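job 3f2a | input accepted
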Amino acid sequence: MQRVYQFHHFGEVGQPNPAVGAKSTRLHSGPISFAVIMAEAQEPGVESIARNRQARHEYQVLETWEAGIVLTGTEVKSLREGKANITDAFGIVRDGEVYLLNMNVSPYDRGGYVNHEPTRLRKLLLHKREIRKLIGGVERQGLTLVPLELYFKGGRAKVRMALAKGKKLHDKRDDSRKKDAEREMARALRRR
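job 3f2a | predicted structure (192 res):
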């Protein structure tokens, strides 16, 4: 998601710029407008690796958690190069622990014989109370564990997991209609 900020500057050529304390170097007089597009603000020290864009389209997200991942050395090096895919991944609860299946981390180029298997089972690190809540949602209510984003936070690999309910076709259509209506309203307001 991007935010657009608009700035307007009014003034004449050669007027002193109070911010710089010097004369302006504009070539013409009159108002100047420009827009700066900024990415959605993230926490400092968070470096995104991969996002699951289809998740919010395919599922209705009910609740999210941040979980650590148990990784090998070559997996971490491969993630630092941005070689990961979480679109087909999902979470399971087995023996009181949460695992991530089908997360594809490409083999590290200089890994040699100690390289990892790309789609192996990876354990997620969560608190017991969070795991109990996930067990209730997955086993009793029939919900799905879906990864939304894979990122580094403070040098550690993290995954944002969501407890989600699958959308029906008519739900997807309703969502696309709402998004189209919002876009049209935004366009109409910009034209004014």
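job 3f2a | Confidence is low (pLDDT under 50) at residues 1-41.
job 3f2a | closed
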